[in-house]
Amino acid sequence: MDADLVALSAAVGAACLQRRLLIATAESCTGGWAAQVITHTAGSSGWFERGFVTYGNEAKVEMLGVRPETLERFGAVSQETAAEMAAGALKNSSALISLAITGIAGPTGGSPGKPVGTVSFAWCRAGETAETDTVVFVGDREAIRRQAVVHALRGLLRRLDAE
Predict the structure, then answer these.
(1) CATH code for 3-161?
(2) ∠ CA 32-34-37, rounded to 5°
């Protein structure tokens, strides 16, 4: 793991430990990479509760409670789906904060409305409405996935620091 991800891991851990928060992740296109970064730092069981890798739509529905209507209307790569993923991660864990990532890492799968590199995110605190974002990243599959992980974890830190 490169130095930037190691530093991000430590910062997320320190922020959550200080606030006594457990994190849950819900990931699709990143395949558990955000959870891997979070748990890189020793002692991560003090702030990481669990991760869900829900690559397919059926897994999103079964494991996180994403509504089929949401997937049909907005697609798997949407802020609406990301928000339901983040809420589902909280509902199906004892975490108090969650993040969700769902996107198109490529090299195929894009469309004119959602090109390769489109990634939707959500961050949710227990009892609150999820905050969402969508970004179109550039690069190859690995670069898009890495950028998505960094964006998700930096977004988590911004939200924790805003408290």
Answers:
(1) 3.90.950.20
(2) 110
* Rounded Cα distance, 101 and 82, in Å: 6
Return contacts of 128-133, CB within 8 angstroms, 24+ apart: 129/83, 130/82, 130/83, 130/86, 130/87, 130/100, 131/159, 132/79, 132/80, 132/82, 132/83, 133/79
Helix (H, G, I), strand (E, B) or coil at 75: coil
Q: 């209307």: which residue's tokens?
A: 73
The model's pLDDT over 106-152, given as tens digits with 9 standing for 90+, comes to 999 999 999 999 999 999 999 999 999 999 999 999 999 999 999 99
d(CA 159, CA 49): 18
Q: List the domain boundaries for the chain.
A: 3-161
